[in-house]
Amino acid sequence: MVWTALLGAAAGSFMNVCISRLPSGESVVAPRSRCPACGSAIRWFENIPLVSWAILRARCRCCAAPISWRYPAIEGAGIAIWAGMGWAFGMSAHALAGAVLFTLLLGIAVIDYRHYLIPLPLALGGLAAGIATSLLPGPPRPLASALGAAVGYSTLFVTGWLGERALKKPAMGGGDMWMMAMVGAFLGPGGALLTIFLGALSGAVVFGPVALRTGKLVPFGAFLAIGAAITFLFGDSLVGWHLRLIGSG
Questions:
Q1: pLDDT tens for each residue of 156-205
Q2: 38: three-class secondary structure by DSSP
Q3: Can you give the pTM of this predicted structure?
Q4: What is d(CA 141, CA 131) in angstroms, rounded to the nearest whole number?
Q5: What angle do CA 33, 35, 37 make, to 5 degrees?
Q6: Cα 216 from chain centroid (whole Å)
Q7: SS3 readout for 43-71
Q8: Three-state DSSP string of 188-239
Q9: 3-state DSSP assignment of residue 173
């Protein structure tokens, strides 16, 4: 599992770049990483996931400005995701798809929670990755992946259209729709619908009271990410339980 952990560390490090730059429309390729306080370039040995943050004692080498705990947290989450998928599903296409999906969900959830924004490069790149992984052995197959993307996007599009007509204001962001196209490509049409249900449920339970008290909008993308993660791990069990419940009734 060492190499999966190393891949996860690299994925987490890249996701940190996405979280920092995409909300402001910056490129994730250039320029090189720099200290946001003094602008000094970060050299490669100062950018080793987890290790450099600890060695530098969470401070910039040049100006001693604090380095946010978010960086090692995201890198650690990337390691946990990739190593966990390898441990749970072995060296399989399903493990690879899960690792890629969860890494994307992590970045989207953090960005949406902080900025109420789902960057299209992550959603569209994830859509392409979902369709690509459907070409590997295991479900969903390419047709189901394409159908899942269509169902995910169109369901939120219709929901947003109906909400806008009822509330007389925008009710759904385009980023949410493309995110669900991405999720549908990984999970298929049934997985897309279950994700939307679980995302709406978790958003209402967890953030609903906060929204009522403060008037803040619900960062729906963050809760769709929770719904997608639950669906990937437990979707078949949840559907089976529901069908048994209906049958027994």
A1: 999 988 887 877 777 678 899 999 999 999 999 999 999 999 999 998 88
A2: coil
A3: 0.92
A4: 9
A5: 150
A6: 21
A7: CHHHCCCCHHHHHCCCECCCCCCECCCHH
A8: HHHHHHHHHHHHHHHHHHHHHHHHHHHCCCCCHHHHHHHHHHHHHHHHHHHH
A9: coil
Confidence (pLDDT) at 196: 96
The residue among 216 and 99 whose pLDDT is bigger is 99
- SS3 per-residue string spanning 105-132: HHHHHHHHHHHCCCCHHHHHHHHHHHHH
Q: At what angle are helices 2-21 and 70-89 packed, to 10 degrees?
A: 140
Tokens encoding 29: 């390729």
pLDDT tens-place string over residues 7-36: 999 999 999 999 999 999 998 988 778 877
Report how far residue 115's alpha carbon sits from residue 113's, in angstroms, rounded to the nearest whole number. Answer: 6
Query: Residue 232's Cα: distance from chain center in Å?
Result: 12
Look at residues 11, 216, 18, 229 and name the one whose alpha carbon lies nearest to residue 118. Answer: 18
Contact 176, 156 (CB under 8 A): yes
User: Using alpha carbons only, how large is the chain's radius of gyration in Å?
Assistant: 19
Whole-angstrom CA distances from 224 to 16, 64, 138, 197 are 20, 38, 24, 9
Distance CA 86, CA 150 (A): 29
User: What pLDDT does 248 receive?
Assistant: 65
CB 22 within 8 Å of CB 121? yes
